[in-house]
Amino acid sequence: DIQMTQSPSSLSASVGDRVTITCRASQGLSDYLAWFQQKPGNAPKCLIYAASRLQSGVPSRFSGSGSGSDFTLTISSLQPEDFATYYCQQYNNYPYTFGQGTKLEIK
Amino acid sequence: QVQLQESGPGLVKPSGTLSLTCDVSGGSISNSNWWSWVRQPPGKGLEWIGEIYHTGSTNYNPSLKSRVTISVDKSKNQFSLKLTSVTAADTAVYYCARFRSTGEGFDLWGQGTMVTASS
Q1: What is the distance between the alpha carbons of residues A97 and B61, in angstroms, rounded to a whole number?
Q2: What does the DSSP 8-state code read for residue A81?
Q3: Among A85, A96, A97, which would you mutate to test the B interface (most chain B Cβ atoms within 10 Å of its Cβ)?
Q4: SS3 of A6, please?
Q5: Which residues contact B113 (CB under 8 A, 6 or more apart)?
Q6: Integer Cα distance of B65 and B24 in angstroms
Q7: Dist CA B40 CA B42 (whole Å)
Q8: What is the pLDDT along chain A (107 residues), one digit of tens a residue?
Q9: Theoretical Cys-Cys bridge with B34: which of A40, B93, B94, B99, CB 3.0 to 4.6 Å?
């Protein structure tokens, strides 16, 4: 299985901050990498697919970059509704696997 | 607009079989997508269980493969999950999700259903 390692595991930030979350894969993925946002009690919501493509309806303050085995999710200016847990996920190889999550909290 | 809705018992006895169904509404299950099950134990991360195509072709997570069956019923526009020999470790929220073959990944999820394995 491909192991996905996110850092940090948790992060405190303020509204308006620029935030970056990283995801490292145990082997190369090309660009078959997605980012999800999950709020308590809700299903995950896909923000980014193919490493850098924004899902329809997702605000442009979210962006993704990277290829191979190192990827980043950036939120350019945090909004109150962005405080949530974020997961990366690879879909280059079966079984599909997720990172352990990054909890983004209000400072 | 396509929507997914999970249904099934919320309580399963240990050693029993977990059975869930995902209803696909607003679109055909026979479109060029894969249909997955993903689970999340309380307070923990996400685990992909497996997927099915409308032709019946499946892929499973090897960690669960011996206990999992995913099937599709095109006449009802739904797909299903069966997990046998359930233990407390299978207690989780179970989600169904659509994986777009056109490259957009997991773009649509059901709301999830909590299943508890307990006597």
Answers
A1: 9
A2: G
A3: A96
A4: strand
A5: B6, B7, B8, B10, B20, B93, B94
A6: 24
A7: 6
A8: 999 999 999 999 999 999 999 999 999 998 999 999 999 999 999 999 999 999 999 999 999 999 999 999 999 999 999 999 999 999 999 999 999 999 999 88
A9: B99
Q: Virtual CA dihedral for A8, A41, B52, B3, nearest 10 degrees?
A: -130
Q: Single out the residue of A74, A55, A76, A56 nearest to residue A64, CA to CA.
A: A74
Smallest CA–CA distance, residue B104 to chain A, in Å, is 6
The closest of B1, B33, B22 to B98, measured between CA atoms, is B33
Contact flag B109-A91 (C-beta cutoff 8 Å): no
Q: Is A103 on the interface with B (CB under 8 A)?
A: no
Rounded distance between C-alpha atoms, residue A1 and residue B82, angstroms: 23
As given in the structure block, the two tokens for residue B6 are 């999970």
CA–CA distance, A4 with B70 (Å, rounded to integer): 25
- On whether any CB of chain B is under 8 Å from the CB of A86, the answer is no
pLDDT per position as a tens digit, B54-91: 999 999 999 999 999 999 999 999 999 999 999 999 99
The owner of tokens 């509704």 is A81
Query: Cβ atoms within 10 A of the Cβ of A5, count?
Result: 13
Residues comprising chain A, all counted = 107
